[in-house]
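Q: Could you predict the 3D structure of Transducin (Beta)-like 3?
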Amino acid sequence: GLMKTVLEDHAWKSLTLAMEGEETDKDLDIGTWVEGLEEDDLEALVDVCGRWQTTARNCDLAHSVMNEVFKRIPASRLYRMEGIASFLDSFVAYGAKHLRRLEAHTSRAFLCDGILASVGSTNVLPELSERRMIDIITDDPREPSTKRQRGGSGAEKVAAS
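A: Sure. Here are the predicted C-alpha coordinates for Transducin (Beta)-like 3:
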Protein backbone atom coordinates (compact mmCIF):
# COMPACT_ATOMS: atom_id res chain seq x y z
CA GLY A 1 0.00 0.00 0.00
CA LEU A 2 0.93 3.56 0.69
CA MET A 3 3.74 2.89 3.19
CA LYS A 4 5.47 0.48 0.81
CA THR A 5 5.26 3.10 -1.93
CA VAL A 6 6.70 5.74 0.41
CA LEU A 7 9.62 3.48 1.35
CA GLU A 8 10.29 2.49 -2.26
CA ASP A 9 10.16 6.12 -3.41
CA HIS A 10 12.51 7.10 -0.60
CA ALA A 11 14.95 4.32 -1.51
CA TRP A 12 14.91 5.12 -5.24
CA LYS A 13 15.40 8.83 -4.59
CA SER A 14 18.34 8.09 -2.28
CA LEU A 15 19.94 5.76 -4.80
CA THR A 16 19.41 8.14 -7.70
CA LEU A 17 20.92 11.07 -5.82
CA ALA A 18 23.86 8.94 -4.68
CA MET A 19 24.55 7.70 -8.21
CA GLU A 20 24.29 11.17 -9.70
CA GLY A 21 26.47 12.57 -6.94
CA GLU A 22 24.06 15.41 -6.28
CA GLU A 23 24.02 17.11 -2.93
CA THR A 24 20.71 17.50 -1.20
CA ASP A 25 19.64 19.91 1.49
CA LYS A 26 17.55 17.18 3.09
CA ASP A 27 18.95 14.12 4.86
CA LEU A 28 17.53 11.03 3.17
CA ASP A 29 18.62 8.57 5.87
CA ILE A 30 15.89 6.03 6.68
CA GLY A 31 16.64 6.30 10.40
CA THR A 32 16.12 10.04 10.39
CA TRP A 33 12.90 9.55 8.44
CA VAL A 34 11.68 7.01 11.01
CA GLU A 35 12.48 9.39 13.89
CA GLY A 36 10.37 12.11 12.26
CA LEU A 37 7.24 9.99 11.83
CA GLU A 38 4.09 10.97 13.68
CA GLU A 39 2.48 8.36 15.96
CA ASP A 40 -0.16 7.35 13.40
CA ASP A 41 2.42 6.96 10.64
CA LEU A 42 4.75 5.00 12.91
CA GLU A 43 1.89 2.66 13.86
CA ALA A 44 1.09 2.20 10.16
CA LEU A 45 4.76 1.44 9.45
CA VAL A 46 4.85 -1.19 12.20
CA ASP A 47 1.62 -2.69 10.84
CA VAL A 48 3.06 -2.89 7.32
CA CYS A 49 6.31 -4.40 8.58
CA GLY A 50 4.28 -6.93 10.54
CA ARG A 51 2.60 -8.04 7.34
CA TRP A 52 5.86 -7.97 5.35
CA GLN A 53 7.65 -10.25 7.77
CA THR A 54 5.19 -13.04 7.01
CA THR A 55 6.70 -13.68 3.57
CA ALA A 56 10.22 -14.68 2.65
CA ARG A 57 10.26 -12.11 -0.16
CA ASN A 58 9.66 -9.10 2.09
CA CYS A 59 10.96 -10.19 5.50
CA ASP A 60 14.46 -8.78 4.98
CA LEU A 61 13.07 -5.32 4.24
CA ALA A 62 10.68 -5.51 7.20
CA HIS A 63 13.47 -6.52 9.56
CA SER A 64 15.77 -3.78 8.24
CA VAL A 65 13.12 -1.11 8.71
CA MET A 66 12.18 -2.39 12.16
CA ASN A 67 15.87 -2.46 13.10
CA GLU A 68 15.92 1.29 12.46
CA VAL A 69 12.68 1.72 14.42
CA PHE A 70 14.11 -0.13 17.43
CA LYS A 71 17.39 1.78 17.28
CA ARG A 72 15.86 5.24 16.82
CA ILE A 73 12.56 5.24 18.69
CA PRO A 74 12.71 5.28 22.51
CA ALA A 75 11.20 2.27 24.28
CA SER A 76 8.77 4.52 26.13
CA ARG A 77 7.32 5.67 22.80
CA LEU A 78 7.18 2.11 21.45
CA TYR A 79 5.31 0.86 24.54
CA ARG A 80 2.53 3.40 23.91
CA MET A 81 2.12 2.37 20.28
CA GLU A 82 -0.97 0.44 19.32
CA GLY A 83 -0.08 -2.84 17.61
CA ILE A 84 3.49 -3.19 18.88
CA ALA A 85 2.61 -6.22 21.06
CA SER A 86 1.06 -8.12 18.15
CA PHE A 87 4.03 -7.18 15.96
CA LEU A 88 6.48 -8.56 18.53
CA ASP A 89 4.46 -11.78 18.89
CA SER A 90 4.48 -12.35 15.13
CA PHE A 91 8.14 -11.28 14.96
CA VAL A 92 9.09 -14.07 17.36
CA ALA A 93 6.97 -16.67 15.53
CA TYR A 94 8.10 -15.74 12.03
CA GLY A 95 11.65 -15.06 13.19
CA ALA A 96 12.04 -18.73 14.10
CA LYS A 97 10.62 -19.74 10.71
CA HIS A 98 12.98 -17.40 8.83
CA LEU A 99 15.93 -18.63 10.90
CA ARG A 100 15.15 -22.25 9.94
CA ARG A 101 14.92 -21.20 6.29
CA LEU A 102 18.24 -19.37 6.54
CA GLU A 103 19.90 -22.40 8.15
CA ALA A 104 18.59 -24.61 5.31
CA HIS A 105 20.05 -22.21 2.73
CA THR A 106 23.35 -22.21 4.58
CA SER A 107 23.53 -26.01 4.65
CA ARG A 108 22.74 -26.13 0.91
CA ALA A 109 25.52 -23.63 0.27
CA PHE A 110 27.96 -25.87 2.16
CA LEU A 111 26.79 -28.84 0.07
CA CYS A 112 27.35 -26.88 -3.16
CA ASP A 113 30.80 -25.77 -1.94
CA GLY A 114 31.66 -29.39 -1.15
CA ILE A 115 30.49 -30.58 -4.55
CA LEU A 116 32.44 -27.91 -6.38
CA ALA A 117 35.56 -28.61 -4.33
CA SER A 118 35.22 -32.34 -4.96
CA VAL A 119 34.74 -31.89 -8.69
CA GLY A 120 37.65 -29.47 -8.89
CA SER A 121 40.00 -31.68 -6.88
CA THR A 122 39.42 -34.90 -8.85
CA ASN A 123 40.55 -33.42 -12.17
CA VAL A 124 37.32 -34.49 -13.82
CA LEU A 125 37.13 -33.49 -17.46
CA PRO A 126 34.64 -30.70 -18.17
CA GLU A 127 32.42 -33.10 -20.12
CA LEU A 128 32.06 -35.30 -17.03
CA SER A 129 31.59 -32.58 -14.45
CA GLU A 130 27.79 -32.65 -14.52
CA ARG A 131 27.68 -36.45 -14.29
CA ARG A 132 30.22 -36.43 -11.45
CA MET A 133 28.18 -33.87 -9.51
CA ILE A 134 25.07 -36.02 -9.88
CA ASP A 135 27.04 -39.04 -8.63
CA ILE A 136 28.28 -37.08 -5.63
CA ILE A 137 24.84 -35.72 -4.79
CA THR A 138 23.17 -39.10 -5.03
CA ASP A 139 26.09 -40.86 -3.27
CA ASP A 140 26.38 -43.20 -6.25
CA PRO A 141 29.77 -44.91 -5.88
CA ARG A 142 29.80 -45.92 -9.52
CA GLU A 143 32.01 -43.98 -11.86
CA PRO A 144 30.69 -43.27 -15.36
CA SER A 145 31.24 -46.40 -17.45
CA THR A 146 33.06 -44.70 -20.32
CA LYS A 147 35.32 -41.77 -19.82
CA ARG A 148 35.46 -39.31 -22.65
CA GLN A 149 38.76 -37.94 -23.69
CA ARG A 150 39.48 -34.73 -25.49
CA GLY A 151 39.38 -35.08 -29.27
CA GLY A 152 38.20 -38.04 -31.32
CA SER A 153 34.67 -39.18 -32.07
CA GLY A 154 32.43 -41.40 -30.05
CA ALA A 155 32.77 -44.20 -32.62
CA GLU A 156 36.56 -44.25 -32.12
CA LYS A 157 36.10 -44.54 -28.37
CA VAL A 158 33.62 -47.41 -28.69
CA ALA A 159 35.91 -49.24 -31.12
CA ALA A 160 38.86 -48.79 -28.76
CA SER A 161 37.04 -50.42 -25.86
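Q: Anything worth pointing out?
A: The chain has eight helices and no strands.
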